[in-house]
Amino acid sequence: MKSIFLVISLSSLLLIELTFSSEEIVMEAGSIKEKSTEDIVSRVGSFVSLLHARNDQIKDCFENIKGKDIIISDRDEELEKKDQVIKGLEDHIRSVSEELYEITDQPLTANGTDRCPIGSESGIYRVKIPGLRNFEAACNEEGWMTIQRRIDGSENFTRDWESYKNGFGDVRKEFFIGLEKLYLMTDQRPCELVIKLGDANGTTKYAYYDDFKIGNEEALYKIINLAFRSGTAGDSMFWNKNKKFSTFDRDNDLIPRDCAKTHSGGWWFAECGYSSLNGKYHADGFAPHRNGIHWGTANGYNYTVSLLSTEMMIRPKICNH
Ligand SMILES: [Ca+2]
Which residues form the domain of 217? Predict the structure, then answer.
């Protein structure tokens, strides 16, 4: 583009110069009688020489432009080559990352770290289960793995299907482990479930289920097995058995209105049921619109009570250890 512009500019300059020279000839025509033929021939000769000189200059400019075009073209090729090198390096990094995952996953699988260790200190452990890459899990000394935790309302639990499927939050603070992990873990071996609930009065209650299993995404992660055994909080999940998971963008409950919207958060809503542990966090423990963190049997079915802390934990059944 620059080259074309330069050529046009140079051509215009030459045209102006030629026009000017012609006018000069016409202007002087009146006094041609006073000029000798020799003078005129000499003037024309000068103009011709000038034209030749300008022509040579234009040629030089063309050559110069052509040279610069070649340089630009070479640089374009160089850039293209460098782009290819960068792409190659990116592919290599991806490949090395995959290998690294394989290398770290193999010993984890071989060492049986597909669950939280029993008798070890509470904390964060790397767990590897078939079908998933290793991940950080919050474990206690009895081998329970936390799958959901509410403590201070720092995490947003009003999330869509994809978020609940893949999990969200900070495993060291508030989080939900994700339905896909929960499905793979509970599908591969019988699991038990324990739920701890803390209210605004500082009371902690619990519910223990000795069988817990959910289906896959095709089954909309519905609760397949759920067997309440004991606990001071009572069984508020009784109505959630065989119910599918719902979020504000995926209504799988049993009634026309959307429980995930009225109760807030994602859960295995029925009509809508007596439990909702992923509801909105109310720091004062009061939920006037029934959208808080509920466990009906723990609070006399008073749904203005919103719990201040929850922890859901699973582990493979002890008899299988
Ligand atoms: Ca509905």
Answer: 123-320
99: tokens are: 């290998």
Residue 259 C-alpha to ligand 1 middle, in angstroms?
A: 6
> 178 — phi, psi (to 5°)?
110, 135
Is 113 within a domain? Answer: no
Ligand 1 centroid distance, CA of 143 (Å): 37
CATH number at residue 223: 3.90.215.10
* Model-wide pTM > 0.90: no
As a whole number of angstroms, the distance between CA 263 and CA 151 comes to: 19
Residues of the chain with confidence (pLDDT) below 50: 1-23, 25-26, 320-321
Residues 156 and 287 in one domain: yes
pLDDT digits (tens, 9 = 90+) for 146-168: 999 999 999 999 999 999 999 99
Structural contact between residues 287 and 281, judged by C-beta atoms closer than 8 angstroms:
no
Cα 258 to averaged position of ligand 1 atoms, centre (Å): 4
Which residues are in the CB-under-5-Å shell of ion ligand 1?
251, 253, 258
